[in-house]
Design brief:
mainly alpha, 4 helices
C-alpha cells in the first residue's frame, strides 16, 4: 500500500480500487463525483504514522532481543542498534518526499497523489498535516536516537559521576 509519496487508501486488488482521483462527474460509478476519494489515491498524511510504527516496532524488537541475548554486557557493541538502522532507512526512504518538496511551487507535500505518486489535479497542492505527520515522526526518530546515543556513551569507569557525550545524530 506504500506509494512513492503516500499510502494508498485501498488495496489495488479490491474491486472498487481506482487510484486516479478527478472529482468530476462521469458515467463511471467507481469515480463519479469523487466517489473514489477513499478508494485508491495515495494520501500523504498517514505516511508519518506508518514511519513512526516502523521505527517503534523495530526499536521494541531490538530492545527485547538485545535484553534477552546480552543482559550481562554493560558496554556498547560496535554494530549500530536496530533503531539507528531503522532511522537511517526511514530517512533514506523520505528522499522522494524531500525531492517533491524541493520541486513543489509551495515547498510542501500534497493532500494526495494519484497512482504511483502522479500529480493529482483535484488535490490540495500543499497540505499542512501531510508535512506535519512526517516532521513529527522525524522528531521522534531524533529523540530516540539521541537518547540511545546518550545511553551508549555513558562512561562506566566512574559509576558515581558518569560523563555523557551527547551529540546530534548525523545520517548520510
Amino acid at each position: 500500500l506504500i506509494g512513492p509519496i503516500g499510502v494508498k487508501t485501498l488495496d489495488p486488488i479490491d474491486w472498487a480500487y481506482d487510484g486516479n482521483y478527478t472529482n468530476q462527474d462521469s458515467d463511471n460509478y467507481k469515480s463519479a463525483g469523487g466517489f473514489n476519494y477513499h478508494n485508491g489515491p495515495e494520501w500523504v498524511w498517514p505516511l508519518g504514522y506508518f514511519l513512526r510504527a516502523v521505527h517503534n516496532f523495530s526499536s521494541s524488537s531490538s530492545s527485547s532481543s538485545s535484553s534477552s541475548s546480552s543482559s550481562s554486557s554493560s558496554s556498547s557493541s560496535s554494530s549500530p542498534s536496530s533503531s539507528v538502522v531503522s532511522a537511517h532507512n526511514i530517512r533514506r526512504f523520505l528522499t522522494k518526499q524531500a525531492d517533491y518538496i524541493a520541486s513543489a511551487p509551495m515547498r510542501g507535500l500534497p493532500e494526495l497523489t494519484n497512482t504511483n505518486g502522479d500529480f493529482c489535479q483535484a488535490a490540495c497542492e500543499t497540505q499542512a498535516w501531510s508535512s506535519a505527520t512526517i516532521l513529527d515522526a522525524l522528531y521522534d526518530l531524533d529523540l530516540s536516537i539521541s537518547s540511545q546515543k546518550e545511553r551508549l556513551t555513558v562512561n562506566t569507569s566512574s559509576p558515581k559521576f558518569p560523563t555523557v557525550n551527547v551529540s546530534s545524530p548525523k545520517f548520510s
